């Protein structure tokens, strides 16, 4: 299987070059006995992990997490060896409106004071077909862990200006925010909900060989 290298989501984010000093205990152990497995670290300066959710059922509110750490490992010739992990700083949420971001950090939603991190740890890879794959893993938000599926596509490989091999991928997933305890909502005068339950995760990731 040629030129198949992938990684994750998890936050996590557009146009930044630094990541928070997050707990290593919350990150995935990517060590493997396979000598062909290569370790990569997500380049946050050239990656974006975002989300969108329907507002009033008619338009999307878009946002991202600006601080995170993420890494991955795999044998480039065997996509099934992929392992990935991420730790996201909840306080770095950014939807472009500070008042809304403050509400999202509050106990109505993420409760960042008591649950400052979101984590993802991969478990297995399924449905590999060409450059497409499904990455199955545990996503933990607000003290609740659920299994989620990210549908991915390998986007290419290149050598960076400093001679470091790089890989890129895109992946998407959908979750129910209520499954993670984010249940706040209000009704409009017409009886509709303000914030939809379904949240779409969108990952555009570039990773550099460690």
Walkthrough of the structure:
This protein is mainly β. The chain contains one helix and eleven strands. Strands 1-4-5-7-8-9-10-11 form an eight-stranded antiparallel β-barrel. A hairpin with a 5-residue loop joins strand 9 and strand 10 (165-176). It is elongated.
Fold topology:
Blueprint (H helix, E strand, L loop, with lengths): L37 E5 L5 E8 L3 E7 L2 E8 L2 E12 L3 E2 L3 H8 L11 E13 L2 E10 L2 E16 L5 E12 L18 E15 L1
Antiparallel strand pairs: 1-4, 1-11, 2-3, 2-11, 3-6, 4-5, 5-7, 7-8, 8-9, 9-10, 10-11
Low-confidence residue ranges: 1-27
Strand order of the largest sheet: 1-4-5-7-8-9-10-11
DSSP, total strands: 11
Strand content: over 45%
Counted by DSSP, the helix tally is 1
Mean pLDDT: 82
The structure class reads mainly beta
Task: Give the overall form.
Answer: elongated
Whole-Å distance between the termini?
Answer: 22 Å
User: What Rg do the Cα atoms give?
Assistant: 17 Å
Helix content: under 10%
What's the SSE pattern?
EEEEEEHEEEEE
Largest sheet: 8 strands, antiparallel, barrel
Task: Give the gist of this structure.
This protein is mainly β and 210 residues long. Helix content is 4%, strand content 51%.
What descriptors fit this protein?
single chain, mainly beta, 51% strand, 210 residues, eight-stranded antiparallel beta barrel, 11 strands, disordered N terminus
């Amino acid at each position: 299987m040629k030129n198949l290298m992938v990684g994750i989501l998890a936050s996590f984010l557009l146009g930044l070059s630094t990541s928070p000093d997050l707990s290593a205990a919350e990150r995935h152990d990517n060590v493997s006995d396979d000598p062909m497995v290569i370790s990569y670290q997500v380049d946050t300066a050239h990656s974006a992990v975002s989300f969108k959710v329907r507002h009033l059922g008619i338009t999307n509110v878009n946002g991202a997490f600006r601080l995170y750490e993420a890494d991955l490992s795999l044998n480039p010739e065997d996509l099934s060896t992929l392992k990935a992990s991420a730790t996201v700083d909840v306080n770095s949420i950014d939807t472009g409106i500070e008042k809304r971001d403050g509400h999202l950090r509050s106990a109505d939603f993420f409760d960042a004071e008591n649950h400052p991190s979101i984590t993802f740890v991969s478990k297995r890879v399924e449905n590999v077909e060409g450059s497409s794959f499904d990455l199955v893993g545990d996503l933990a938000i607000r003290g609740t862990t659920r299994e989620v599926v990210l549908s991915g596509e390998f986007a290419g490989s290149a050598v960076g200006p400093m001679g470091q091999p790089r890989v890129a991928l895109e992946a998407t997933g959908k979750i129910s925010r209520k499954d993670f305890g984010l249940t706040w909502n209000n009704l409009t005068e017409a009886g509709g909900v303000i914030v939809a339950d379904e949240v779409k995760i969108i990952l555009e990731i570039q990773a550099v060989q460690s």
